[in-house]
Design a protein that fits this description.
Blueprint: E1 6-7, E2 31-38, E3 42-50, H1 62-65, E4 68-70, E5 73-77, E6 83-86, H2 88-101, H3 109-122, E7 134-143, E8 155-165, E9 176-181, H4 198-202, H5 205-213, E10 218-222, E11 230-233, E12 237-242, E13 245-248, H6 259-271, E14 275-277, H7 282-290, E15 294-301, E16 305-314, E17 317-320, H8 328-341, E18 352-355
Parallel strand pairs: 1-3, 9-10, 9-16, 13-14
Antiparallel strand pairs: 2-3, 2-8, 4-7, 5-6, 5-7, 6-18, 7-8, 10-11, 12-13, 12-15, 15-16, 16-17
The structure holds pyridoxal-5'-phosphate (PLP).
Length: 356
């Protein structure tokens, strides 16, 4: 796909948020990238335009049948003022996998990435400089055809918006408490759990409400069929260090394959730390805990990178992990991965991509 990306500049630049306390997802930069899709033309008219509300027909299919997918990644500013993306090609790969699952036409991944790079060149000043801050990038696609019949939309829009975000850990890394959810289900094999599509997140709110009421910050999701096997924590993948071995649930058909997860597995293998992807039941985890073998637990995702788990509550059965402190391995993974992402430590895996 070789197309010119048309640029329309905004007439008035917005003020940037104050660096030391930027709320997540509330500030947006001056411009956004847009590409349209129609059956006849395919993806067409790529452009960068001022950030502004969009107008959709009330019958636009997105409102009724929910065909929409999204991605999340970050741009980091290095100490020597370079701009780095972390494995962005994986995000556009996954965007297409998500789209395919819910019958949205795929997009040229390289071209989509080149639109992002062009947008970032224009919006460079929106990438915060303060330690721990970054520019969150949200590519997404939604169906736009005005039509109430039940069939995939014939038209779509792809967009990228940018949002400066503060440090996830303003007061240092605090392990979180987790509510084990055994009533509601996030996803089942054969469903849409492997796709970053809106409905999965709407379906998760009820359980999150329960967790919040009980004073826990996240939900541990179990498999939707037997309610026995561990799947994810909140919207993060999950890892346990048990008796010297790191275990993460295998990609079962209902788990979202995180790029952080993928990177953590590669790093552990590289370091010679035993890491295995397999089914792990809650019973097995609690048995190991009773034997004193559960050493560390953490979630992984773009927002927090590593989120240590300090406590689990499964219907009153409480598990305190590593005395509610971040574990040694979790800390090393966090330091190394964030170091690579921000250009502070060497990137032996060639994961970062510089935007010039
Ligand atoms: C996005 C997401 C993750 C983490 O993916 P990353 O690529 O590591 O950010 C994990 N689980 C769910 C459900 C997600 O939506």
């Amino acid at each position: 796909m070789t197309m010119n990306i048309d640029v329309t500049y905004t007439k008035s630049l917005k003020p940037k948020p104050i660096a030391d306390n930027i709320a997540f997802g509330k500030h947006f930069s001056d411009h956004m990238a847009v590409i349209d899709y129609s059956e006849e033309k395919g993806w067409y008219d790529p452009r960068i335009v001022p950030y502004e509300p969009i107008t959709l027909d009330p019958a636009a299919m997105i409102f009724h049948y929910g065909q929409t997918v999204f991605e999340g990644l970050k741009a980091y500013r290095t100490e020597d003022d370079r701009i780095l993306l972390f494995r962005p090609e994986k995000n556009f790969r996954r965007l297409n996998l998500s789209s395919d699952r819910i019958s949205i036409p795929t997009i040229d991944e390289e071209f989509a990435l080149s639109c992002l790079k062009k947008l970032l060149e224009i919006e460079k000043d929106w990438i915060p400089t303060a330690e721990g801050n970054s520019l969150y990038i949200r590519p997404f696609i939604f169906s736009t055809e005005p039509n109430l019949s039940l069939a995939p939309s014939k038209t779509y829009q792809f967009m990228i918006i940018l949002s400066p975000v503060g440090s996830y850990y303003k007061e240092g890394i605090q392990p979180v408490g987790i509510h084990v959810e055994d009533e509601y289900t996030r996803a089942v094999r054969g469903g849409t759990g492997t796709a970053k599509t809106a409905g999965n997140y709407a379906a998760a709110y009820k359980a999150q409400e329960k967790a919040t009421q009980e004073g826990y910050s996240q939900v541990l999701w179990l498999d939707g069929v037997e309610k026995k096997y561990i799947e994810e924590v909140g919207s993060m993948n999950v890892f346990f260090k048990i008796n010297g071995e790191v275990i993460t649930p295998e990609l079962s058909g209902s788990i979202l394959e995180g790029i952080t997860r993928m990177s953590i597995i590669e790093m552990l293998k590289d370091w010679g730390v035993p890491v295995i992807e397999r089914r792990i039941s809650l019973e097995e985890l609690y048995d190991a805990y009773d034997k004193g073998q559960v050493e560390e637990a953490f979630g992984t995702g773009t927002a927090a990178v590593i989120s240590p788990v300090g406590e689990l509550n499964w219907d009153g059965r409480k598990m305190i992990i590593n005395n509610k402190q971040i574990g040694e391995l979790s800390q090393k993974l966090y330091d190394t991965l964030t170091g690579i992402q921000t250009g502070k430590v060497a990137d032996p895996y060639d994961w970062t991509v510089e935007v010039k």
